[in-house]
Every structure is written in C-alpha cells, then in structure tokens.
Design goal:
Layout lengths: L3 H15 L19 E2 L11 E10 L10 E7 L4 E6 L4 E6 L8 E4 L2 E4 L1 H4 L7 E9 L5 E8 L5 E9 L5 E11 L1 E6 L5 E6 L17 E6 L4 E5 L7 H9 L4 E2 L4 H4 L2 E6 L3 E6 L4 E6 L4 E7 L2 E3 L22 E4 L5 E6 L2 E8 L5 E2 L2 E2 L1 E5 L13 H4 L4 E5 L4 E2 L6 E4 L3 E8 L2 E7 L3 H9 L24 E9 L2 E8 L5 E5 L7 E6 L14 E7 L9 E7 L4 E9 L1
Parallel strand pairs: 2-6, 22-30
Antiparallel strand pairs: 1-6, 2-39, 3-4, 4-5, 5-7, 8-9, 9-10, 10-11, 12-13, 13-14, 14-15, 16-29, 17-18, 18-19, 19-20, 21-22, 23-24, 24-31, 25-26, 27-28, 31-32, 33-34, 34-35, 35-36, 37-38, 38-39
Length: 557
C-alpha cells in the first residue's frame, strides 16, 4: 500500500506541472488580462489531438466545501461580457467579468462580484429558500434563476431580471413554478423559460410524509404566463404498467406523478427532453400542449460485456466482467444537438440513490467479509473482490430484472438518435472514462472529490459523469462531459454519430490537497468563437467543491 505521504508528494509534483497557487477571484487582473496565476493546464492529448485544450483563466470564490454546492451552475452573456455563476453556499449569484479576455500562456485570475438575488426579489407571498440554477436568454437581455421555497413541499419561483452593461441585474418579476425547481433554461428562440421541478420527498416516505409531484414549468416570456406540466397521465394502472415494461424504474406502490423527479432539461423550440434520474428515464414534453407525450428508459451498461473496476482494495485499475451485473445509467445532465438535420440526445450517466429520512435504497456489500451481491451470483470467491461495493437495492422497485445485480450510474455518456418512435442508442462511451483516467492519472484513479485515495470510488459510481454539453468548432461538433469525482472534462468528436471518436481530456484540479481549486466540475457553458472574447471557442466549468470556475480555450488544428 502506498503511503499517504507518497501520494501527497506525487500530488505536489503534478500540481506544480498542471496548476499551482491561486489568486483570489475578487482580485482584478491586469489590463492585458494575462496576470500570472499558475502554470497552464493542458489537454492530455494536445500533441496529437485535432482539438487542443488549454486553461486560460480561473475565477476563485475563495471558499471550498467538501459537500459541494459552492460554484454550481454557470452561464455566459456575450452581450455584456459577464458570466453568471450560482454560489449555493453563499446564496448569491456571482457576476464574473470576461471582457477583453485574451489567450494566455498561464492561467489568469478573473474578477467577480456577488449579487444578492434574495435582496432583489420582490414576492410577498413567497418564503425564499435557496437558488439552484441560472440561465441567460439567447439575446442577452434577460437572466432567470430558479429559486426553491423554504418549505420543502411549497412551490418555487423563477426570478427574472434584465441584464445591464456593467453586469448588474434589474429585477423584473417572479413566476410561480412547481415544487423544488432545480434547473432553469430558455428555449433556443427565447420565447419560453423552462424549470425542472424535482419534488423530492425530503422528509422520507413515512405515513405522514409528503412526496411532492415532480413537474416542469413552462413560462412564456412575452407576458410571463406559466403552466406546470405534471405526470398524472401516467398514474393509471395500465399506464404505469407500460412504463414498468419499458424498464422505467418506479418505486412500488407509488404513483408516477409523485415518484418521477425531473432533474435536467434539454430542448429545442418545440420539444423538451427531461432527465428523470432516479427512474433511469427520459421524459418527452410537447411545449405547445404542455403535455408529456412519453417516457423512455435511459438503458443500462452491461457489465457482462463491458469490463468495470468495482474493487476499491487493489489500488489499481483492474477491470473485469460480471455476468449478472448491470449499471443503471441514471442520467443527470443531458444535451440536445442537431447534426445534419437530425436531433440527438446525450446523457451524462451519473447515478443517484434516494436518501430521505430513514430511507436509503443502497445495498452495501463488503466482500472482505464473505458477502455476496444481492442476487448471490457475485461472491468474493468467484470474483476476487475485496471491500465494499454499493448496489442498487431493487427490493422496493419495479422495472428491473430480478436475476441481475445493479450499480448506480453507468460511468459513461450515451448518445441517442431522436425519432418518432423514441430514443435509439447510437453510441456509448462504455468504460472509456475509467480506462483513460487510469492511464493519465494513475495515482488518482477513481479518487473522490474530497479524498485523493486511489480506488476510493471504485465500489460506487467511479468517476461519476455529471454534465454534458455540446459545441461546434470549425465545422466539427464536440461533446464535453464533466467527471465529478476525479475531475476534468472528457471531449468526444460527435460530428458523425455513426463514428464517434474520443478527442481529448483536460483536468486542471489542484491535486496538492483533498479539496482544492477546480475540484468537482458541475455546470458547463460552451462559448462559440463568434461570441468569445478571445475569438476562440471557450468552455467554462463551475466546480462545486473547489469553489472555482475554470475557463478552457478550445483550438482546433
């Protein structure tokens, strides 16, 4: 076993090469905005890849939190040159100046100022809880944030502001949403604002507990009128049975309208696709009628064919297959992209357990104590496994095969072609994320975002794909996927959906401590070259544990 001191020394060496000390984010950069802050982090495949990745800037909030929630979601307004990031710990929106950015050979420090959204919002009938998401309208005139109520079962609000040239905001109005709005976005034409309202049972599933309905609120920006779409159409016994037959994972004896919890939205001007993470599903919402037209399974990773590393004791990447094992993809962030006239949906297959009150649907098995998998098909003797593996506890759920063992998440991203008949899988990254991070950062393989110990997350969701977005650079279309635990962004060329190829990987996390800068990227924002201050495409990553926003420049050869 390698000592913790050895890991720290290795981390310090890597940190010196990749990304060293940091200036506070509130400190303004020089006139040319290339004030030295640290060595530049670069894509691991920059010498051979068609797409080069280099970190050129960072905003540092000056705070970290091992539980996350610092810098969570980020969006960019090309009209006034400011990025806006949600700081969930401080409960503020940070306006980060991107004006006059230039390409730098080192990482420059971005300046920012906090906006107290709660102080700006005027809504006498609403008790403010916390802000969860931000979106800028396509024309740059409006900004909307999602705000949850203090009462866990009360309706939330979308607060809408006009954007000023100096980065400040002017309050316009609030619009009532469903319960617990967790994500907010504009349609591409700016005519509508959509919120994904989770409706989580935060007090558990007891007799007197309330499981609020999950929903999506559709707000028309012309007059700020709103309609909230729910899942009651799927509550009949016949409709529910159809969902179960399609491998939608539903809690037994629970109505889908209460059980389904919208997480993230990807949309065009006509249709919204909504990730239902815990149900391992994608819902389709017709925006004109405000009606959910269907729900599809996000599918599974088949670990009888795809090798996976679930042994957290061997301190190395040593994947193997298991005949009974499957991965519940359970997508968090999703993205919609049109390629050659066809729509494609991309999912970041994170995985998520339900932990409310005394309820937890994890089944932890310690193979070092002669335990078996839930089905009994995987044993310490026939697998060589040691240590803890966290399985999905399927006892309370419909939609799964009783002969299979299930893990949370797919440790992957998946690309689906959208058709009238549903979603047809056309690409899956399989075990790429584990294999490539093991090759690039072997000392930190499957480490966590609050613990640098190698293999720490192998028994539970691995690198944990969090968010996916897409962007076009010099005629090529790319997918960008964040890895929440080890950190960094994976990049794939998806220009030809029939021949998706890996492009590059960048990780600017400071590995000199368990929790440090650029740790745990959550939200992503792609900025095309035509709207970029550097005149080259940029990618911004909000890092919820490290409390930073990383800015990467994307340069196609």
């Amino acid at each position: 076993m390698k000592s913790k001191l050895f890991r720290r020394l290795s981390a310090l060496t890597l940190a010196f090469v990749m990304t060293a000390g940091f200036a506070p984010g509130v400190q303004a950069a020089g006139k040319n905005h290339c004030t030295h802050q640290s060595a530049q982090a670069a894509g691991f495949e920059n010498r051979t890849a068609s797409l080069k990745l280099n970190q050129i800037a960072r905003y540092d909030s000056g705070m970290t939190n091992e539980d996350g929630g610092v810098m969570e979601i980020v969006d960019y307004n090309s009209k006034n040159g400011y990025a806006y990031a949600v700081n969930g710990q401080k409960g503020v929106l940070t306006a980060i100046s991107m004006k006059n950015r230039t390409s730098c050979r080192s990482v420059s420090s971005l300046s920012g100022r906090d906006i107290d959204v709660k102080a700006l919002v005027e809504d006498e009938g609403f008790v403010y809880g916390d802000m969860t998401s931000v979106a800028v309208s396509p024309n740059g005139k409006l900004l909307a944030v999602a705000i949850q109520a203090e009462g866990y079962a009360d309706n939330g609000r979308a607060a809408i502001f006009s954007c000023n040239r100096n980065g400040s905001l002017t309050f316009i109005t609030t619009v009532e949403t469903g319960v617990q709005p967790d994500m907010i976005t504009f349609t591409p034409n700016g005519d509508r604002i959509l919120t994904a309202n989770e409706g989580e049972p935060r007090e558990g599933y007891g007799d007197n507990a309330v499981d609020p309905a999950g929903s999506v609120t559709i707000i028309k920006t012309k007059r700020y009128s709103a309609f909230t779409a729910d899942f009651t159409a799927f509550d009949s016994e016949k409709a529910r049975r159809k969902l179960v037959d399609k491998n939608i994972v539903l809690k037994k004896n629970t109505a889908p309208s209460a059980d389904l919890e919208p997480e993230y939205i990807a949309c065009n001007d006509r249709t919204a696709y909504v990730s239902l993470q815990e149900a391992n599903a994608i819902a389709v919402l017709d925006l004109a009628s405000g009606r959910f037209t269907d729900i599809f399974s996000a599918g599974f990773e088949d670990y009888s064919e795809i090798a996976v590393d679930i042994d957290k004791k061997d301190e190395e990447y040593k994947p193997q297959t298991y005949d009974s094992l499957r991965g519940l993809r359970m997508p968090d962030g999703i993205a919609l992209v049109n390629i050659h006239g066809r729509d494609y949906l991309l999912t970041a297959n994170e995985g998520d357990s339900r932990e409310w009150g005394d309820y937890l649907n994890e089944d932890e098995r310690n193979f070092g104590k002669n335990k078996t998998s839930p089905t009994g098909k995987i044993t310490a003797d026939n697998s060589g496994l040691e240590g803890k593996v966290v399985f999905f506890d399927a006892e309370d759920y419909d939609g799964l095969d009783a002969e299979c063992d299930y893990l949370f998440g797919g440790r992957s991203f998946t690309m689906f072609r959208v058709s009238r008949d549903g979603l047809k899988e056309c690409f899956d990254s399989k075990n790429d994320f584990e294999a490539k991070t093991a090759a690039y950062l072997p000392e930190y393989f499957n480490c966590s975002n609050d613990d640098l110990t190698i293999d720490d997350r192998s028994g539970k969701k691995g690198p944990e794909a969090e968010t996916v977005t897409t962007g076009k650079i010099n005629g090529r279309t790319y997918a960008f996927i964040t890895l929440e635990r080890i950190g960094g962004v994976m990049v794939y060329d998806i220009t030809n959906p029939a021949d998706v190829t890996y492009a590059n990987y960048i990780n600017s996390r400071d590995f000199s401590a368990d929790v440090a800068a650029d740790d745990s990227p959550e939200g992503l924002k792609f900025i095309p070259a035509s709207k970029s201050p550097t005149r080259k495409a940029l990618l911004m990553a909000a890092c919820e544990v490290g409390g930073t926003v990383a800015v990467y420049e994307l340069d196609r050869r």
